[in-house]
């Protein structure tokens, strides 16, 4: 059983904002879904490497980079060629 | 009280391109955000591709450290949010690293050889670089040039017992990496260290983000003192993460929130696993430092100390081998003791010195054309000119110009006569057995001959002169 | 042959997020053909939103590989189609740009998450469109709108440029009114791209053939059980009867792992999504983050405002499923379940060449009808197994219930997309005749 406090903690961990009024509904829905997921407890077998391609490599050859303008074009705000980001307190 | 130290080292590999994209790694002197592409910028829809050379370099290191390479290894995502991490996850290796269980041999504090065990070695990408704007501003500036640079993370067991051992370990490791040509020691920030330190019986403290070898010894020395003081006062050492402030030489407590991280590792779904254990046998390792040191001693007949110093840097070792043919023991003394000291004093690297010049110098010394003292003077003049960007003159030219050729017998006698006559008190002291007196007289003669006379020979000449009643 | 196509559609069903009023085209296999592209596929110079506010205004500086291939084949890219936000949905109702309506009945959903692409094709606005399929997102709207749609074998079409939702499950695939056009479009986009390390070099270049004599068609009991509308089941059995009439044989098969399939799917896709969507921090692209706030505050606020409820719910589910203490129970178990399902299909494909069943358990629901997330997830039960196993699966229209289209789903062995297309083609040609 996930509590409302658990939901708030999961939101913190996921760095997702949810409002106070969303919490009860999220909690109910979460629990319903996790109840459904309980069927996984009955899964049998061990994990094993999946058979597929291995060692997919790229040569160490330089390829053209984007120009500084292209890199900055989509950014919200920039300064002297750098991209601005909120400061970690 | 026993000190217990373990290290986690991040090394930037000297590949031409980044770990997961083709952007060039040669970003240091360039403008910000000029070595980026959709992949290393974490643009939506971009996909990583593994750089084969980075894996080869990783395997080279694994082999050099005698490590086991498991059958299969894979990349994983380490999820956390930080402005310098464009995808909000770092592609690293978690429970299936490239190699495990190796060893490095170092000298302990008593001069004996000991083993430091290497727990694991794995590949991961470097995040971007955050620049904090001065003046207490609310924002940071990000440069993604560094984002995606290949890192090799090397983790040791807590086998070191002092800050000095840690420093020696790092020097040894750095030398090995340079010998393997997988790491460029000249690149700033190319090697970063996190250290774990505890006093036996107390909690462990992690010190993060030390970026110089000297910094490691300083940081750990500070920590040992800090922790001992706490215990002396009857307090406990808190288990925490601390940051090293390089400028002030102290460690400070980091926000404890950093320790709460749940990285939610899972295998990177955009990449396929590695099966590279079978490639290790074919890897040709160059002659590694320990082997080279032993060979130097055997082949050139030089001392352990000299061999150790000379092989501590592959470029220095190469230089020595280029000049040793004149006279290996003479060359060892001059290169390891004199030349190295003069270079350090001038903040110069061995690359600035043409080997032929030192060969010429050694030949002049060996043929006794000049004395040791004159040799030092010639070397200093030569290096001063080199450092100033002027051409490195042949030693013979300097000797000629400064008149530093060794003084001959006659010239000696004249000067000895002059000095003995001028210093009767010293002569008296010598006669009454005061040993220092002879050195004084010899010094006076050397002053007069501007170092062109060999002090040992002079000692004999002066004492003979006085004894045979030259006065 | 080169030129410009003028495109000003009557988009009453809200199939498009962005339209290109003039679309250039060149010579090639698709010369001058109007193709719509789902809005989670990067198009250089054209806004790409994934149906979300957090990418509103984002203009990619590069083309996805499939878009490069479309351009090289001479196609005219006329617009970006509406979708459930980041692909998370079965009805295209979670789009930040309003729901798309089903052209067959505008009070109903077109299916999702490629609802815009399906509606654009079904309404005749374009002959072909690209969709993406993570847990049924091509096949479901194809079934609900009465068109054809193929989810290729995993690793057959490049994901470079596809804005990721669940990397180990999704593929870009073709949608069109006819199976032949689906195959034509597949022949353009299914080419090896070294930039996608999960691809194998198995290009698709195939002209569908209606010759299916001797084809063994597997009928899985799990696809006709409870939860499937019996009338839908009937239409599909009739369709299978048509295949038998053409010389195919039917054989019962079983996929026991189906009981874990939906849970495994939702654990895996939400886990991968929680990681994939973390990069939208408003720093390098998208609506700018507030740099006056502190990092965590700014980041959380942005995600609360710009991500819809379903997206936030799935990110939290995925974060939880990967978190310390729970990863073993959820993520690890889901991967084992996945491997079991793959093995179930391998076993079934010893006795059958293709496996047939309904695409969806019902016909299209009404807009706003499914408000409970879990009941929405349950409607994916018949489509997710193909994604988990990485096998090709096509949906082709096979009749109606209450005037609404029903989809016949045909699944095949890995890299046997051609055989699956042939079976669908044979059926389609027979009923058109």
Summarize the structure.
The complex is a heterotrimer of chains A (89), B (471) and C (433). With 89 residues, chain A is α+β, with helices and mostly antiparallel strands. Helices cover 35% and strands 10% of the residues of chain A.
Secondary structure layout plus pairing:
The complex is a heterotrimer of chains A (89), B (471) and C (433).
Chain A: H1 4-13, H2 23-37, E1 57-58, H3 68-73, E2 78-79, E3 82-86
Antiparallel strand pairs in A: 2-3
Chain B: E1 3-12, H1 38-41, E2 50-51, H2 52-64, E3 76-79, E4 89-92, E5 99-107, E6 113-125, E7 129-132, E8 139-143, E9 150-156, H3 163-179, E10 191-199, E11 205-210, H4 213-232, E12 240-245, E13 250-253, E14 266-267, H5 289-300, H6 304-310, H7 314-323, H8 328-345, H9 355-366, H10 372-387, H11 395-402, H12 409-422, H13 424-431, H14 435-448, H15 455-467
Parallel strand pairs in B: 11-12
Antiparallel strand pairs in B: 1-9, 1-10, 3-4, 3-14, 5-6, 6-9, 7-8, 10-11, 12-13
Helix pairs in contact in B: 3-4, 5-6, 6-8, 8-10, 9-10, 12-14, 12-15, 13-14, 14-15
Chain C: E1 3-6, E2 16-19, E3 22-25, E4 34-38, H1 65-72, E5 76-81, H2 115-122, E6 128-133, H3 139-145, E7 148-151, E8 171-176, H4 179-189, E9 216-220, H5 230-245, E10 249-253, H6 258-276, H7 295-306, H8 309-322, H9 328-351, E11 354-358, H10 373-378, H11 384-389, E12 393-401, E13 404-412, H12 417-432
Helix pairs in contact in C: 6-8, 6-9
